[in-house]
Amino acid sequence: MPSTPTTVTVLRDVRPWGGQRADLHVADGLITAVVPHDPAAAPADGTVEGGGLLALPGLVNAHAHVDKSWWGKPWVSYGGEGGTQGRIAHERAHRDELGIPGVDVTLAVLRESVRTGTTAVRTHVDVDLGVGLRGLEVVREAVATLGGAVHAEIVAFPQDGVLRRPGVLELLDQAAAAGAQHVGGLDPASIDRDPVGQLDGLFAIAERHGVGIDVHLHDGGELGAFQIELMIDRTVRAGLQGRVNVAHGFAVGQLPVARQADLVAAMGEAGITMTTVAPIGAAPLPLHALRAAGVDVGLGTDGIRDLWSPYGTGDLLALTTQLARLSGFRHDEDLVTAARIASSDAARFVGRDVHDLVPGAPADVVLVDAENVPDAVVRAPRRALVVAGGRVVARDGDVLV
Ligand SMILES: [Zn+2]
């Protein structure tokens, strides 16, 4: 059995965001003070030595699917047809034989995420006519088993469509009533072929239960932009500013410059957010323009080694390197922005007001041997220590929970 994680009272001699050496004081799972490092202080119970390493906040995976990974199982060869519909059909045909959804597979992928410094996740969880709401229970049980090593926010996700599968809208309503923090959607135009109908259904649930909305939108170009406009209208009308997210949103990166600028401004005014998985081959999102317009952007892994794709490791810092490269980031300040997108600036995606190395924030900290934040982003070095909720949950590549 893994040894009991250490409860931290002082994380000693670390460099928050690459700054001056500091001691982080921790109580009840929160950072209570960040003070200049005192080399003369006698170690107390719960003092953990940081050895002058660089400290970042725990990484935030803002778009995961921890219910559908086969991480930890023998290799599963890629099969079935390509495209969104092809992958949906393949997954529905083969998930049962892999025990998906299941607590053991969800635990395996969550442990791997913790090992690489992720301490908070917004995960989509499949809700459909086959599994009903079982996936939500599975994910909750796995998260509870880890005892606070990872905080999870749940999106009830209609992976197989909403209106085209009668009964799914009711399942989403039940999921929201049962505590899912968000309801998801999927390409309202190309999957349901009824964008107004799907979005009206989702927004009605959000208004009824006070939950957020998080829609996977692969539809590109004007078709995608049109659906974002439908979401903007409904967000403002329902007073759901800050509660509605567009996942992927490839269309935003594909529009002509002037059209893109108008849409981004309208998204910012409506408090719409976006999550990206930094996909290779897609037109990059205009990260600076989005952030300048007030559109918060989160970074996520999407599926990790599942029936959609064998790729993905769950290492969000390595994904930050990819985001930075795809975005053409080279200057130090841009590389720091990438690190903030993957951590402190993603607080709202996991239901937190603050997620940073400051008093009042959850004591979620990742230590790496790096010269500064840009060095950490381009190199994604091994995570030397991971603290979550004030406990040491991983050390030198070993998960302790
Ligand atoms: Zn996804």
Give a written overview of the molecule.
With 401 residues, the chain is of the alpha/beta class. It has 12 helices and 16 strands. It has helices at residues 83-94, 103-115, 134-145, 168-177, 195-209, 221-238, 250-254, 257-269, 287-292, 316-326, 332-341, 373-379, and strands spanning 10-16, 22-27, 30-36, 47-57, 59-64, 118-126, 151-157, 182-186, 212-217, 244-248, 273-276, 297-299, 365-368, 383-388, 391-395, 398-399. The strands form 2 sheets. The protein has an 8-stranded mixed sheet, covered by helices on one side. An 8-stranded parallel sheet has the order 5-6-7-8-9-10-11-12. The longest helix is centred in the middle third of the chain and has 18 residues, at 221-238. The site of zinc ion (ZN) has 6 residues, from loops.
Shape type: globular
The helix content is 25-40%
Q: What structural class do helix, strand and pairing data support?
A: alpha/beta
- For the report, how would you describe the main beta sheet? 8 strands, mixed
Radius of gyration: 21 Å
What are its keywords?
401 residues; alpha/beta; 8-stranded parallel β-sheet; binds zinc ion
Could you give a short description of this structure?
It contains twelve helices and 16 strands. The protein is an alpha/beta fold and 401 residues long. α2 packs across α3 (134-145) and α5 packs parallel to α6.
Layout: helices, strands, pairs:
Layout: E1 10-16, E2 22-27, E3 30-36, E4 47-57, E5 59-64, H1 83-94, H2 103-115, E6 118-126, H3 134-145, E7 151-157, H4 168-177, E8 182-186, H5 195-209, E9 212-217, H6 221-238, E10 244-248, H7 250-254, H8 257-269, E11 273-276, H9 287-292, E12 297-299, H10 316-326, H11 332-341, E13 365-368, H12 373-379, E14 383-388, E15 391-395, E16 398-399
Parallel strand pairs: 1-4, 5-6, 6-7, 7-8, 8-9, 9-10, 10-11, 11-12
Antiparallel strand pairs: 1-2, 2-3, 4-13, 13-14, 14-15, 15-16
The structure holds zinc ion (ZN).
